[in-house]
Structures are given as C-alpha cells and as structure tokens.
Amino acid sequence: MYNNFLTCFLKSVVTLGAAVGGVLGGYLVDKIGRKLSLMLCSVPYVLGYIVIISAHNVWMLYFGRMLTGLASGVTSLVVPVYISEVSHPKVRGMLGSCVQLMVVTGILGAYVAGITLKWRWLAVLCSFPSCIMLLFMSFMPETPRFLLNRNKRAEAVAALCFLRGPHADHEWECQQVEASVQEEGLNLSEFKNPSIYRPLLIGVALMFFQQITGINAVMFYAETIFEEANFKDSRMASVVVSSIQVCFTAVAALIIDKTGRKVLLYISGLIMALSTALFGLYFKMALPNGNNSSNSDVWFTLNSASPGTESSISWLAVVSLGLFVAGLLNVLWHILALLCLLLPQRNFYSFLCS
C-alpha cells in the first residue's frame, strides 16, 4: 500500500511543479520577456534531470520531478505567447497548432525510448531537448510586442527585420502592435463588462472540465492501466495510444480552421464519452467478478477470470483509450487561444493558462 502511494506521488508530483510553473510563467513573461523566460526554463529542466540521474533515494526523484514540472509549467505558457507574437498572421494558426502537436510527439518519443532504455538513461535523453532549446533561443530575437511595450522601438524593428525579412513593411506592423500595446491593462472594475468576464468564465470552465475528464491521469498512468487490464505488452500498447493521439492532433491542426473549433469540441466530447464507456465495458468483461481498483485483488480476479477473455478483446482497450486521449486536449487549447484574442491584455491570457 505504501509503495503504491509512493509510485502514485512520483507520477503526480510533476503536476504540482507545473501548477507553480504556470503562475511563475505568468509573472516572468511580462517582467523579463518571452525569450529570456524560455532560456531560463532550461535551467530547472537540466537540473531536474541531473537530480533524477544521480538519485540515490526516492526524495531525490521527487525533487527532480518537481523541477521538471516547474519548467514544464512555465514553457506551457511562454511558448504559445512567443509563437503568437513572432509569427505572421497568415501562419499563426498553423504554428499555434504545432505547439500541442509537438507536445504529444514528445510524449510518444518518451514512450518509444522507454521500451529499450532504463529510467536513468531515459532521463539523460530527455535532458537534451532543453539544452538544444537554450542554444537555439540564444539566436532568436525577443518578440516585437514585448520590445514595444518597453519602448524599445529600434530593437522591435530589428526583430521584425529578422523575422519577416528586409523587404517587409516593418513600420506598418510596428504601428499595429503599438496600437494594441496601448490598450493593455486590466482593472478589477472592468470585470463588470460582459466582454471581459464572459471569455474568462468560458475559458476557466473549459479548462476545468478538461482536467476532470482525467486526460492527464490517463497519459501518466497509461502503462499502469494496461498492466491492470492484463495486457500482454503494456509498453507497446502505450506507444500505440500515444501514436493515435499524435495522428489525431495532426489531423485537427489541418482541419480546425475549416470545420470550426466548436464543432470539433462537440465531436471530440462525444468520442471521449463513448470511448470511456467502451473502456469501462472492457474492464467489466475482463473482470466479471471483481472491480478495477489498483490492488492485488485485481490480479487475483484477472487470473481467475475465464481464460482468453482479456486477449480476445484486448483491441477494445487500445482503441477506446486511444480515442479518449485523441479528443479533448488539442481542441480546447485552440478555443482558449481564441478566447484570449478577444482581449488585448496579456494578463488575461496568463491567468487562463496558469
């Protein structure tokens, strides 16, 4: 029982760090800039993996996971902000879609690497992307919006020249950004305005329901879920599920502008509800005389169930869980980004993402 608690806490402690990182990222992104915030994220990433690699006890693993979670929380906020502010309006939607696509691709890569690598070597491998980000971000400019907000017009023009090329109309774009920068600032009295509180309430509600669907818990415990479902190769099943998520995220990024966010949200919600019911049906068929709690009784019940029951319907577990993780997450971040565009205030965006 105690070991189960330690294992569960080890998996979930990263979310505690991410919660702190979301709040910290909302502060850093306006105080020190988007570029420097991203570069500083590499420090807790690398330190966290170093602690994990050299861990001699479980508390070092907790601390390392907390540091990587902290960095993840900051990057999950700063990266979309940086991309939205440096990208051209014609490709902003596509580049914004790539954020979630890269997230799920990274999860898939970790699952694939985990098949052959021990956990220490997996931590070594995971430390490289943050180092690469630090290296390449050193050559990237700060966002023109942040520079204009700090009255650094010459540097903003230079950044636009780097991003758009020397033949673009930098002065016109600077004027457009300056006009939006002048509108920044949000007082508490403005929350009486429906154009302020409605997007806020919708955004908070969407992210709340997204969290209580259990999408993060499913991704963290995918291998454990398949193990308790008596799946023969739980690691490979996790890879398949993650691959399905990558494919659906890529498809959503391609069709979301044509179909609309609301339509995709309806469809994904229905698919998630159906897939959850199917997965419950699988456990009911695989465990006809027991429950699906995470204890030794599960294994006893599975072993006493009719032979071949699990293997004959194992495809149902993979398909249902794959459809579940493919649904809600990507679409919600698109809707959140659009809601935040209704207001020019960056603090509104930071609050929702946090």
TrEMBL record:
<feature type="transmembrane region" description="Helical">
    <location>
        <begin position="200"/>
        <end position="222"/>
    </location>
</feature>
<keyword id="KW-0812">Transmembrane</keyword>
<feature type="transmembrane region" description="Helical">
    <location>
        <begin position="12"/>
        <end position="29"/>
    </location>
</feature>
<feature type="transmembrane region" description="Helical">
    <location>
        <begin position="62"/>
        <end position="83"/>
    </location>
</feature>
<dbReference type="InterPro" id="IPR003663">
    <property type="entry name" value="Sugar/inositol_transpt"/>
</dbReference>
<feature type="transmembrane region" description="Helical">
    <location>
        <begin position="263"/>
        <end position="283"/>
    </location>
</feature>
<keyword id="KW-1133">Transmembrane helix</keyword>
<dbReference type="InterPro" id="IPR036259">
    <property type="entry name" value="MFS_trans_sf"/>
</dbReference>
<keyword id="KW-1003">Cell membrane</keyword>
<dbReference type="Pfam" id="PF00083">
    <property type="entry name" value="Sugar_tr"/>
</dbReference>
<dbReference type="GO" id="GO:0005886">
    <property type="term" value="C:plasma membrane"/>
</dbReference>
<dbReference type="InterPro" id="IPR005829">
    <property type="entry name" value="Sugar_transporter_CS"/>
</dbReference>
<dbReference type="InterPro" id="IPR005828">
    <property type="entry name" value="MFS_sugar_transport-like"/>
</dbReference>
<feature type="transmembrane region" description="Helical">
    <location>
        <begin position="119"/>
        <end position="140"/>
    </location>
</feature>
<keyword id="KW-0813">Transport</keyword>
<keyword id="KW-0472">Membrane</keyword>
<feature type="transmembrane region" description="Helical">
    <location>
        <begin position="234"/>
        <end position="256"/>
    </location>
</feature>
<protein>
    <submittedName>
        <fullName>Solute carrier family 2 (Facilitated glucose transporter), member 8, transcript variant X3</fullName>
    </submittedName>
</protein>
<keyword id="KW-0762">Sugar transport</keyword>
<dbReference type="InterPro" id="IPR050549">
    <property type="entry name" value="MFS_Trehalose_Transporter"/>
</dbReference>
<dbReference type="InterPro" id="IPR020846">
    <property type="entry name" value="MFS_dom"/>
</dbReference>
<feature type="transmembrane region" description="Helical">
    <location>
        <begin position="95"/>
        <end position="113"/>
    </location>
</feature>
<feature type="domain" description="Major facilitator superfamily (MFS) profile">
    <location>
        <begin position="1"/>
        <end position="354"/>
    </location>
</feature>
<feature type="transmembrane region" description="Helical">
    <location>
        <begin position="36"/>
        <end position="56"/>
    </location>
</feature>
<dbReference type="GO" id="GO:0022857">
    <property type="term" value="F:transmembrane transporter activity"/>
</dbReference>
<feature type="transmembrane region" description="Helical">
    <location>
        <begin position="313"/>
        <end position="342"/>
    </location>
</feature>
<dbReference type="GO" id="GO:1904659">
    <property type="term" value="P:D-glucose transmembrane transport"/>
</dbReference>
